[in-house]
Amino acid sequence: MKDPETATVFAGLDGRTDAELPEWYAEQHGGPEPISFSAAIRELPQAVDTAVAYRNPYTDEWVET
User: Fold this and answer.
1) What backbone phi and psi angles, to 5 degrees, belong to 61?
2) How many structural domains comprise the chain?
3) How many Å apart are CA 65 and CA 61, to the nearest integer?
4) DSSP string of 11-37?
5) What are 13's strand-pairing partners?
């Protein structure tokens, strides 16, 4: 049995439970090997088009930059 202090828990499931992860999660994370935090962050979806603006305090309007 895994030590509860080092077990990875997803939706209340860990290596000690007799259950399986949801199919959609298993498809996205099929590998049994854990990945680093930085690798997980790099895999997150990223914005490709971001509108940037600032609020003009004198006219109270948003100005595109």
Assistant:
1) -110, 155
2) 1
3) 13
4) TTB-TTSS----HHHHHHT--SS---H
5) 10
pLDDT in tens, 15-32: 666 777 778 877 877 666
> How many beta carbons lie within 10 A of that of residue 30, not counting itself?
7
Domain that holds residue 61: 1-65
pLDDT in tens, 6-16: 666 666 666 66
Distance CA 32, CA 21 (A): 12
CA angle 46/64/55 to nearest 5° reads 105
Q: What is the DSSP letter of 63?
A: E
The pTM assigned to this predicted structure is: 0.29
